[in-house]
Amino acid sequence: MNNNYNIFWGIIFIYFLGLFLCVMIPSEANAVTEVSTTTNSESDVKSKGRTVVISPPPSAISPSIGGSSSDICTSGVSGAIQTQILGVSTGETVRDENCERLKISKTLYDMGMKVAAVSVLCQDRRVYDAMGMAGTPCPFLGEIGTAAAKKWVANPELIPKPIILETKQDVRERQGWIASGTVTLAMLLFLL
User: Fold this and answer.
1) For 35-57, what is each residue's pLDDT tens digit?
2) How would you write 12-73 as a 3-class SS string?
């Protein structure tokens, strides 16, 4: 029993010794130590640097022309051109007279003014010719039918002028001029 007694007290001693070391050693390690140091130094520094700025390319953005809807007889046209130095953008609305004529004619017809509606459409030479070919000449100052046809013959200067339609050759020539003008402008802007 004496042997067990010694082992028991040995374990208790080791336990308290470990507890003592765990409590005391960290507190000693956390003790504040003040150190004062004075340092004098001199240095000459020479440096070269190069800065590279990477930025997105300049851009001219065409404006959005919002003049086109079902009630307004206009359409928007816009364009832009950009070089490294100069950028230009522009836009405008283009009036569609044929659309206006159709809207006016429809409004007059809806109001019960059928002769006035046809008279508005007859301002277009294609409608004037079609009405004559159909045997129902366009109204002339309130006259309709044969009386109107006689007045048109008596006043040929009031007949709408014929519309000259573009041919494929006309379109090609116009596009050629536009392309050459664009290339010339681009070359001039490139030289800036």
Assistant:
1) 667 777 787 778 888 877 777 76
2) HHHHHHHHHHHHHHHHHHCCCCCCCCCCCCCCCCCCCCCCCCCCCCCCCCCCCCCCCCCCCC
Q: Are 77 and 94 in contact (CB under 8 A)?
A: yes
* Mean local confidence (pLDDT), 8-35: 64
CB hemisphere CA count around 130 (13 angstroms): 8
Q: Partners of 28 in the beta sheet? A: none
DSSP one-letter string for 105-159: HHHHHHTT-HHHHHHHHTTSHHHHHHHHHTT-PPPBTTB-THHHHHHHHH-GGGS
- The residues with which 44 forms a beta bridge, in sequence order, are none
Listed residue (139, 104, 143, 135) closest to 122, CA to CA = 139
Helix (H) or strand (E) holding 161: none
User: What percentage of the chain exceeds 90 in pLDDT?
Assistant: 7
Q: Is 0.85 surpassed by the pTM of this model? A: no
- State the Cα–Cα distance between residues 72 and 100, nearest whole angstrom: 8
**Residues 159, 163, 169: CA angle, nearest 5 degrees:** 160
What span, in angstroms and rounded, lies between the C-alpha atoms of 187 and 83? Answer: 10
User: Rounded CA gap, 85 and 178, in Å?
Assistant: 23
